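Consider a protein example.
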Amino acid sequence: MGRRRAATPASGVTASLCIALLSTTTSALWGQKSSEIAVSDEENPPSSSSSSSFNNYHQVNTEPQAGQNVNLLGQPTYGVDVSFPIHHIPISDNYAWLPHNVDPANNPTPPQYVGMPVQYLGNRRAEYDRMIKACEDHYGGSSTFSVCKTTEEDRVEMSIRQPSSMQNYTELGFKKIRAPREVWERVKKFWEENKDRKYWKSENWPRGNTYTNHWEAPTYMVSVEDTSLRGAGNNLKRHIWDAARDTIQEWTGEELTDCSLYGIRVYTEGSVLATHVDRMPLVSSAILNVDQDVDEPWPIEVYGHDGNAYNITMEPGDMVLYESHSLLHGRPFPLKGRFYANIFIHFEPTGHSLRHEAHEAALQASRGKQDNHPHGGHEAEMSDGLPPYIKRGTIEEERWKRSHPGKKKSSAEKDSFTTGSTPAHVAAQTGDVEQLNSVIETMAHLLDAKDVNGWTPLHEGARGGHESVVRLLVNKGASINERNTEGATPLYWSIKQNGVDHPVSQFLMELGALNIGPDL
């Protein structure tokens, strides 16, 4: 396989995590049109290491440039909006070689560069503009509307809004380790038995989704949920979750419940993964590199809680733990190689701390004293049901309350209903149409009930390819376009697991169901 060179990742300068951009208009967000911001010859940086595009960055800029800081790993740093649009569109063109950066004492900063991070990576803006144009060429776009740009605007807005509203559980927000042996052995065995290209299934990304450049670098799934593959299914998922949970709980100091597990996703040559934060309740997470065939490392870029960017390279068996709800992460630099395969493991904090100070907090509370610990042992007791990882008094609290009117949940309910799976979910998942009919007849409110991952019984029936279950639920009035917490509809899961020609997929499409996939 690849992995032919030592890791020489570049990384990030203090990232301003302000939320001032929330009121930015679309026109201001995108700035000038692509044709107006093309860098002319005189704007191109001089020929030196400071001018290299990212295609050469790992090979050239192994040491910080003049004025460039380093992060805790000793990597050269850069800020947000340097490698990829994160807080603003377009990318910074405040090149390090411009006079006001080289000799600020004698060259005032021009107004258009005030507050803009220094660009150490060359003309990244042109590369990003090319990517968006390719997306629009594929999906269509006009001067008045572009589904590709709309997706980008949503991603950037979320990257500003969400992190500042989140409770963090670790100091830096990420950690690279070797995967626990039981996790690695199970995932590796599954991959070795199913890695033949004939088992790769195309990911069906939603129209205009820009989280990967799938229109030119397709991604594929060798899914641990695809029961047509050897060893796949709920039993494998359960073992992976169970084996990974202790490691991530130890790292976060929090009790965790299963949330989402997907992959193995296979990225192909030229792939880019936009820098983003995950939608809740994907909070405490891990990426496990399963296999790769590359010409040079393909780092995951993360912005730590210290405000610095880090580029972390991985080998098969490496696992990166990360707080995916608040840690900006992506792979904004094109993959150089044949493929790169990862699996993603997500958990949600229950609100019960496993830290030592949680016991002290409980003792304080029992004595009528104030809990002085920032995330002690009592987050689960919030009377309105606000998840413990959303801070009080934040934008996300307001958004959560709007989407959960009158929501209240006791700690007893949380403990007894940790997954949210109902008898209707179980019957739909197993294809037991008679039991499902009986459940819905006696408990009609379960027709569109959602579990902790946002899955309805229709999601379960569609994924399982159970046509009779799907028809029963639809005939009883189930919503065909409900989206789970990852943003996916039942049709998406039917096509993903069973194919577009499957009777369930065809039935849902005849009804006009939407094929919308995960927002990740």
The two ends are 28 Å apart (CA to CA). The chain has three domains: 20-163, 167-353, 423-510. Confidence is low (pLDDT under 50) at residues 1-60, 361-381, 409-418.
